[in-house]
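Input.
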Amino acid sequence: MIEIKNGTKKYRGKSVLDNINMSFVEGKIYGILGRNCSGKTLIMKAICGYIALDKGDVLQMVKK
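Output.
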């Protein structure tokens, strides 16, 4: 499972992600919908570790 807890990110003084909480369960397919510049790619980059959130955490729980 991958989980974003209280994720916040700002660019140039503009809040792109504001305290978001999301969880993705292993084995399921998800789609992220939103307007242009709403933070969809930013969420994916945070999950992959390409960028760091200003506040909050991205948790990746490994199944044993």
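DSSP finds one helix and three strands in the chain.
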